[in-house]
Structure formats: C-alpha cells, structure tokens
Amino acid sequence: xxxxxxxxxxxxxxxxxxxxxxxxxxxxxxxxxxxxxxxxxxxxxxxxxxxxxxxxxxxxxxxxxxxxxxxxxxxxxxxxxxxxxxxxxxxxxxxxxxxxxxxxxxxxxxxxxxxxxxxxxxxxxxxxxxxxxxxxxxxxxxxxxxxxxxxxxxxxxxxxxxxxxxxxxxxxxxxxxxxxxxxxxxxxxxxxxxxx
Length: 196
Fold this sequence. Notes:
By secondary structure, the protein is an alpha+beta fold. The chain has a single domain (about 50-190), classed as Jelly Rolls (Sandwich), CATH 2.60.120.
C-alpha cells in the first residue's frame, strides 16, 4: 500500500484550520425577539393618507454591524423618487399588497439628502434621491417575496397597485444609524416624547 503524502499533508492542514479557535463577533450578546403584535402595531398606526410611512422597530448592535428592523407602508402611487443608501443594505419581505420595483445603480439626477433629514439620521444613513434608473431590473412584488438591495443600489417603486406593506431588515456595518431597543420601541408606539 502506497501512502500519498500530498493528500496526508492537505488533510493535516485542513484539520489544523478546523481546530483553530474562533471567536464570535458579538461576544456574549443577547438575542432580540420582536412579537408579531409589535410589528402590527407599527403598521396599524400608519396614517391612511400617508404616501410612505417608514418606521424603525429595532436597531441592534450585533458586533461588527448593526441590524435594524423596520416596517414600511406605501399607498397607491404611479412613480416616485429613486432612493439610494451609501452604507446601509436593505432586505424587504413583502407582507401585504403588490407593487412594481426597479433596482439598479445608474440613477439619473441623483441628489444628496441633507444630513439632518429624518431618513439619514434615523433610518438608513447618508444617501440620495434620483429621478429614474437607467437599465434597471424590474420586479413585480407580491406577499411572501423577498428583495435584497445592497448599499449603493437605487430602488424605485414605479407603481403601487393599491398599497404595499413590508418588513425591512437594514444591514448597517458602519453603524450609521442609532440603536433602538425594546423600551425605545414601546415609548415610540405610546407616543412618548422620549421616543426617537
């Protein structure tokens, strides 16, 4: 029987790599639970006449990044501004309604949002708004769909049939937005002046 020393060497290297100690990026952090009732409370308080209601439910430090959970309600429209966020990526999970969404990086007439803008300060950090997207990909969103929008990618609702509501996960590796815990969320829902 012949021993293949190369395979034995590679197996040894692989074992050594697997045996190395790894350390969690969020050492001894606690998990975060958000009940469905809390999500629904945010959705229910969206004003009936609002074009867009974007509400932060939580913003949690998970070590090397923050992860934020929000809910968004958009009423019927036929177009609107293109949004782009420099540092924060977003994941949408459609809860209710349907819409046409265009994604792409070639944004026409992109203008920076001011630093004191509510969305910049509390929701998605620096970015801008544009008029349209050249050569973007178009998606027809419906309940259950998921969309991943990396930082720097424009997103544009060109048509909302009646309304659309979605859970938003914001990935914030630069920690551009403030944290929001359960107590701050309860204060926000109660209308407390201490809420953000």
